[in-house]
Amino acid sequence: MPPVTAQVLVLGGTGEARRLAAGLVAEGVEVLSSLAGRVADPVLPEGDVRIGGFGGAAGLAGWLGEHRPRAVVDATHPFAAQITGNAVRAAATTGTPLLRLHRPGWTARPGDDWRWVDSLAEAAEAVAGFGTVFVTTGRQGVGAFAGVPGHCLVRSVDPPDPELPAGTTLLLARGPFSVADEVALMREHRVDVVVTKDSGGHLTEAKLTAARELGLPVVLVRRPPLPAGVDTVATVEDALAWVRAR
Ligand code: NAP
């Protein structure tokens, strides 16, 4: 592969990463977005794109040493803790400026019945007494719900791997979803409880509003901690300002 020149490497896979790439392209910054390759048909950001892992923190450090971007913005999902940790180590090794773009988590509103847990395994325990469980935690963690006694309605962009237990209903769909559609879906499938990660952001928030309107409890998985000592911003606008300052 020919060497890629980019002023900024954006570790992506989120709507914020796509908006950041578009903003950088609009400002004439050479940007390379990196995607893990988890989704078969990803929504591609503007600018150049590479797909696939780097080979751990050492692999990413090697890549940074070879391509020498001026800065890295880690705009990956709040639950993508591995790549976030790798970015911290690789940036430190190579002396590359690193910014973490970390969107805020969700905040409960009056009428919400939210039950916080620390892991997908705890989420599976928390829904054990419910009839129909709407699992929206992404295809990678679905295995945690394999032993749930109730009926699971699983929604993901691509089919989960390994296959789901018999009797599970699988919905393949990519957000954003409207509140009206989420309410209709939860009614149609007679959902009793919703499970989600605390992903934050507007793209997948409608299920929380729908659950509130229907009086349904929501089990939320807490985020992994942010690495210490890294410049962190919450918005794409602040990330653009950070890049501009370099
Ligand atoms: P992860 O557990 O933090 O990362 C696992 C490995 O995947 C990393 O060590 C790295 O492989 C590779 N990787 C992850 N993000 C990458 C990127 N942007 N570019 C190149 N390689 C990447 O990540 P994950 O939770 O599986 O998520 C994978 C991607 O999906 C992330 O980019 C994230 O933004 C996006 N995403 C995740 C979630 C979620 O709930 N976790 C939801 C929506 C979108 P190497 O060690 O080989 O470099």
Structural class: alpha/beta
- Per the CATH scheme, the topology name of the largest domain is Rossmann fold
Beta-strand content:
15-25%
Distance between the amino and carboxyl termini: 28 Å
Write out the CATH superfamily name of the largest domain.
NAD(P)-binding Rossmann-like Domain
Rg, nearest Å:
19 Å
- Unreliable stretches (pLDDT < 50, length at least 5) are none
Bound molecules: NADP nicotinamide-adenine-dinucleotide phosphate
Helix count equals 7
Q: CATH first level of the largest domain: which class?
A: Alpha Beta
Average pLDDT score:
95
Largest sheet: 6 strands, parallel
Work out the count of structural domains: 2
Would you identify the CATH architecture of the largest domain?
3-Layer(aba) Sandwich
Spatial order of strands in the largest sheet: 3-2-1-4-5-12
Extended strand count: 12
| Silhouette | elongated
Helix content: 25-40%
Describe the structure.
By secondary structure, this protein is α/β, with parallel strands linked by helices. The chain folds into 2 domains: 118 residues, 3-Layer(aba) Sandwich (Rossmann fold), CATH 3.40.50; 108 residues, Glycogen Phosphorylase B (Rossmann fold, 3-Layer(aba) Sandwich). The protein is 30% helix and 21% strand. It has 7 helices and 12 strands. The chain has a 6-stranded parallel sheet, sandwiched between helices. A 6-stranded parallel sheet has the order 6-11-10-7-8-9. Helix 2 crosses helix 3 and helix 5 packs across helix 6. The longest helix is centred in the middle third of the chain and has 14 residues. It is elongated and about 55 Å long. The model has no long low-confidence stretch (mean pLDDT 95).
